[in-house]
Amino acid sequence: MKIIDAHCDALYKLQLSKRGKIYGVKPLQFKNSPSLDTNFNRLKQGNYMVQFFALFLEPNIPTYEKWDYLLEQIDLFHSEILANNPEMVHIKKWEDIDKLEDDQIGAVLTLEGADPFGNDLVKLRQLYREGILSIGLTWNHANLCADGAGEPRGGGLTLLGKEVVKLNNAHHVFTDVSHSTVKGFWDMIELADYPIASHSNARAICDHPRNLYDDQIKALFEKNGLIHVVFNPPFIKQDSKEATIADLIKHIDHLCALGGVKQIGFGSDFDGISYYVDQLEHAGQYENFINELLKHYKEDEVRGFAYQNFLDHRPGL
What we know:
With 317 residues, this protein is an alpha/beta fold. 36% of the residues lie in helices and 13% in strands.
């Protein structure tokens, strides 16, 4: 069964390795480096249709360097992921997914945190032209657009943040709520035409600030939005660094009970997590997850989780 995965941090790892900050002096190779959960060979093994690649910067990078760091990650996307792996195809418009051949894997660029463009909307427009198709206004900290999930103040969107959401709407780009505060979530739900939680779970099952309360989930579904479950054990099982596929399926069960069977997807957060679901440690092991889901759900429902729900709820359709 084909897979669409809405979040990974391979570009962040590739940049760290290029700068010699991890894995010794040799830069990672996207094709086959075992240190990459989402390397090309594993995407092929996992039968991927599309992988979303997040542009993410550590918060301690000086503000004046953030745009250059972002451009370097975009360059790695083109030079390391696309140029060295001809079967990887850049998805710059949502309809490009429909043109993929069976042996090709679509690659979508997303932005995790508005920090790199600051309050410069010219830079934001450059990112739209580059093919950014989903934008989360924050990571865990505050920036000029909003507070993030880890910001004690818990504020919502600024006037700039609201303008960014409106621009996302105009460009048929997702507004990602996964790292938002509760107040920020409600601000985005009010304004966003295309909301998505790219890598979040149900807070009723695991009470973590990165997960969503039931009223948030229902509002997301009512707005025709998507929630893609995340494979990070601390977001799956309360106060735990270990989780099983059965633990993860409890979140899907809960989301279905809230009416979301047609709006659930996957957002692994591979390459951005330090702990793993047993038997779901990298992109090549997706079959283990699919096989277990087929024991609990009808095949067409599992196909929806895997890719069809996303295709049915793409912006602009």
